[in-house]
Amino acid sequence: MSRSMQIHEALQAFGLSTDDHDILGVSTLEQAGPHDLCFAEEAGQAAAVARSQAALILVGEDFPEVPGTTLLRVADPRDRFFEIAALFIPAPETEGIHPSAAIHPEADIGADVAIGACAVISAGVTVGSGSHIGPGTYLGPGVRIGSDCLIGPNVSILRDCEIGDRCILHPGATIGGDGFGFRWDGSGHRKVPQLGRAVIGDDVEIGCNSCVDRATLGITRIGQGVKIDNLVQVAHNVTVGRHTILVSQSGIAGSSALGDGVVVAGQVAISDHVQVGDGARIGGQAGVVKDVPPQAAMFGTPARPVKQALREHAALARLPDLLKQIKHQQETIERLESRLSRLEAGQSDA
Amino acid sequence: MSRSMQIHEALQAFGLSTDDHDILGVSTLEQAGPHDLCFAEEAGQAAAVARSQAALILVGEDFPEVPGTTLLRVADPRDRFFEIAALFIPAPETEGIHPSAAIHPEADIGADVAIGACAVISAGVTVGSGSHIGPGTYLGPGVRIGSDCLIGPNVSILRDCEIGDRCILHPGATIGGDGFGFRWDGSGHRKVPQLGRAVIGDDVEIGCNSCVDRATLGITRIGQGVKIDNLVQVAHNVTVGRHTILVSQSGIAGSSALGDGVVVAGQVAISDHVQVGDGARIGGQAGVVKDVPPQAAMFGTPARPVKQALREHAALARLPDLLKQIKHQQETIERLESRLSRLEAGQSDA
Amino acid sequence: MSRSMQIHEALQAFGLSTDDHDILGVSTLEQAGPHDLCFAEEAGQAAAVARSQAALILVGEDFPEVPGTTLLRVADPRDRFFEIAALFIPAPETEGIHPSAAIHPEADIGADVAIGACAVISAGVTVGSGSHIGPGTYLGPGVRIGSDCLIGPNVSILRDCEIGDRCILHPGATIGGDGFGFRWDGSGHRKVPQLGRAVIGDDVEIGCNSCVDRATLGITRIGQGVKIDNLVQVAHNVTVGRHTILVSQSGIAGSSALGDGVVVAGQVAISDHVQVGDGARIGGQAGVVKDVPPQAAMFGTPARPVKQALREHAALARLPDLLKQIKHQQETIERLESRLSRLEAGQSDA
């Protein structure tokens, strides 16, 4: 079925006759042209809707009327919009197996696999069916890639690491770098051999230039459904539970374990050997230095419960004035003391 | 004109006869050899000038005399120095079109373009005249590169993204990675399709291993003349105004908009959907969680006006002693209360 | 000598007859199979030892008895374990010189050098004997690599930079990017030419996607034995002393100088033109804005002595309650004042 027919069907499923609409794309209200589909969620967007050139705008049931626009009222306009938008996802950038790819004869390449130009596939690699390996990407000896993965360009996956099914790795991601471990031998830092692996579960996405190090021994494990943003660091022997989210530039130090459904915001640091419970939420730039209970919301460096941290910040904002008040109180107390002494002297005189 | 003649001319333009100077390079005072040009700005550098082996040292009009050295007095020694230093910038590392580059026949490569070994140029790419594409760099389908750009090695620019004229992209920079957007569907994070693009203006520089994500819809836009340092994250749908500076390891979350001439220092985090006004200055490691007015100077997490933040930090430093003082005051107050009660009892007795 | 014989000898050196043990690997207690060697350091691990399937477990002299396991008591079980574990380090991933590598005829490649597929070696490069250059890695004109280095895949080392002997560079590391220097010329940021180099000493390790910029003039210098983790930024003209450690996502701004044996923890920012003395320890996420004396331990933003910072944080946690106490004191003082005034009035009446 062609994409335009799919769009047609999707809109008809919303009860719309689309004979008069020729939707060729999806866009924002501001940037839409006369063949674009858009959505608006909040009544406050009515002016933007009025200004938009969009062909058709999905809105909620109670969105205000906007004369001169074609609104389609649906229960959940954002979700409906993105369902249709998904039809516009372009095909993966890499197609077929490029003749310049260096594929070792002992690699096992599945059906319908695409491998980009100048990709390098080592001995003992397995690539599951339907996966795409980007140009310039390196797969080290013994690497296993599941099915239907999209591995971007210039990715490096080092020896013996495993990637699950339906994973997406963005450009420059690095899996299986050595853990950062050294012992001082009296004259220099001796390297602790890094003999483990990194194992990435199914349905994981890893952002541009992010790093997941191999374990010293055993496995650095990223659970099923985990989403990792750009420039994130996951150190050796870390365990990340299922469906956990690591936002950009966050870092998890060695041997720490995050539960399921944790949300780690941007630029968070989690120290080594820390346990973070299921469903915990770590606020932006927090520094976690000890265990976090399940469902807890933490903030600050060192990280503490977010309510406490906000109360402290509010109190801190009052501190400069407080210093003046204390000084004033001190003077008052001293005056009181003098006055009291005089009174006492008077009484004893009496 | 040869470089040595250019140097000759530049020095003569400062009124210097250069017959006795054979300047072959530029350097620091400490590391200069007998054929290097240097500069010194402050009188405090006189000892370093005396120790230097430099052939010639540009100094300000009021720099002290330093016997045994050749000083050239000019109005702005740093600027004059770097004008001459610019003559020593080596040619770009990539020349010609390397036979190992994988260039799609439907790519449009301008005049005098250089393409490095193992670079990969996809269908529909346009590269403007005089641009250099580094070895191992990937340009996805439909990418447009302006004229006179320097794209370093191992850069990844994904489908449909645009780079203006005279841009410099350093190694490992990644343009057009998917925005980080998901919706929870009850059993997992469903990917929000990332259908927009990233558009980089003219005269932009982007540092090593920095990332600019494509928009979910529409455009992630980097304005003309913006300078981005290494390891910086710019998320989906961000707008960065003209001549704004993003220092190393800073991160801008989704849909935030920075004005013109903003300075974002190192390791700053700017939350999503935040507006930062023209000319604002965000101090190192700050965490911006709400809008920042134009020209404001902010510091801390959460970010607040820098004067307030510094006053709070100064007050915080006094807090431990303050706790003792409060305790002491409390005791004094209690003693006063007892004494007062005794007095009151005495008076009522009287 | 085969690896199994080496293991045999190593265990015999500990006084163990190994006839009954066929050690084929090393692992953690939890993940070990029946042919793995493990170690345990603390008595608290006795239960994990009991559960482990390991063939043999190195423990300290005073480790408790654990029935049903084979314990080997040694003085320093961790060190002994990793000495044996080192026998299991696999060979480097890159072997031989791949025909797809683009090696300039004017490059000087030493004996026993391995160069991966699609690596790009420019004119004037020198690679010392026994070094391995990963697939997709770029060495710019005039780059010098010492002997016995392991340069990973997709690394970029730009013109004229130098790497010492026995260095390890992990995937995506970038050496010699331009320093981040600009001057405002009234209409835009003019690039300050970056004419220096980066020079990396012997025995240095640099993590995945980390960046060391070239100097504006002169040299950005990484001392012998320095260990740099992933995603670290080292700016132009920085000097890092011998055996200093930079943990993941830390950043050192331009022209700062770190002494020998400094430890910079994760996500630390060190401002430009700062001196950090030998043996200083900078705690995670600290922001160093002024010089740090040798051996000092610093924490917080702005960084201050760790004891002071912790005292301040403890005091801050008490601040919200303190505000209430101050308010209460204020009321008490005012009451005292009234009572005192009444007394004084009574006395003057008397």
Named at the architecture level, the CATH assignment of the largest domain in chain A is 3 Solenoid
Q: What share of the residues of chain A does DSSP label as strand, in percent?
A: 25-35%
User: How many E strands of chain A?
Assistant: 36
Q: In the CATH hierarchy, what is the class of the largest domain in chain A? A: Mainly Beta
Name the CATH superfamily classification of the largest domain in chain A. Hexapeptide repeat proteins
Count of helical regions of chain A? 4
Q: Provide the number of structural domains of chain A.
A: 3
Low-confidence stretches of chain A: none
Structure described in brief:
Chain A is of the alpha/beta class and 350 residues long.
3D architecture notes:
Chain A is α/β, with parallel strands linked by helices. The first copy, chain A, folds into 3 domains: 3-88, 3-Layer(aba) Sandwich (Udp-n-acetylmuramoylalanyl-d-glutamate--2,6- Diaminopimelate Ligase, Chain: A, domain 1); 155-307, UDP N-Acetylglucosamine Acyltransferase, domain 1; 318-350. Helices cover 20% and strands 25% of the residues of chain A. Chain A has helices at residues 3-13, 46-51, 77-85, 306-349; strands spanning 25-26, 36-40, 56-59, 71-73, 102-103, 108-109, 114-115, 120-121, 126-127, 132-133, 138-139, 144-145, 150-151, 156-157, 162-163, 168-169, 174-177, 182-184, 189-191, 197-200, 205-206, 211-213, 219-222, 227-228, 233-234, 239-240, 245-246, 251-252, 257-258, 263-264, 269-270, 275-276, 281-282, 287-288, 297-299, 304-305. In chain A, strands 7-10-13-16-21-24-27-30-33-35-36 form an 11-stranded mixed β-sheet, covered by helices on one side. Chain A is flat and about 110 Å long. In chain A, 53% of the residues are buried. The model of chain A has no long low-confidence stretch (mean pLDDT 93). The interface between A and C is large, with 68 and 66 residues.
